[in-house]
Amino acid sequence: MLDLQYIHSHTRNLDRSFFNNTPTPGPGAVDSRRPNPRFRSIRTITNDLVADYDGVSVIVRKRMSHGLQVDASYTWSRTRDMATNSNAGGTTMDQYDIRRDYAPANWDVPHRFVASYVYDMPFFKESRNALLKQALSGWQLSGVTTLQSGVPINVTIVPDRANTGSANQRPDVVGTPSADCGGGKLVNCIDPAAFALPAQFTFGNAPRNLLRGPGLFVTDMALVKSFALHRDAQFQVRLEAFNVFNHPNFLNPGSQFGTSTFGRITSANPMRQVQLGGRLLF
Prior knowledge:
Distance between the termini: 36 Å
Helix content: under 10%
Structural class: mainly beta
Oligomer: single chain
Order of helices and strands: EEEEEHEEEEEEEEEE
Shape: elongated
Number of domains: 1
Strand content: 35-45%
Number of helices: 1
């Protein structure tokens, strides 16, 4: 069975948590340039953020036949917002021009393929050897394979170049930004020559979430068999392997321009994990 889906959503009036009473970029002491100099930062919650999602999915389903069932889907999507989870620090760079941060969301994944499958293994079902039939027949193999694009990389700078008292600032783009992270390249996977510190007392022109990190490829599988016990009781044996092919799935590199960790990958998702379990059903 083939299924084609298109989903669009436009969300308005999302919560934005930010520090109000922020001065505009310029020289001089930050506190003396605040709109109301009698106060420092004022935590403010308002409802002025927007977000958009567009996605096209192609889904293929094969119902159980000949012991095999398969569900597979491919999704192309685009998720854009002004700030992702502002209550946890995802604020906009310029509180007076929040639309300049409208860009791919932190969790935007343009391409995603997922396949799940179940296979009732036919081996030894007709065996005349009762011991072999009991031990080796009736096993079921299942799994989920996921391939997807990486999530965005937001290149930031450490110093407060705009002199606004805010640390959520970005550099200038002076070249062609590129990222070639993962696949064995763990150092210098972002070209630093494409960026520069902005002029003093200005915001950088780099868009938010400009680059994209390493993709993901992971397969989880399980081998299961139920042994009949007395009456309706069963004992189920389950062998599970997560990331069964032990494929390295790296996380995003350091993205603070000008630091020693810029463009350096220092962490990854878990490697292969195997567990064996049993369950009594009655």
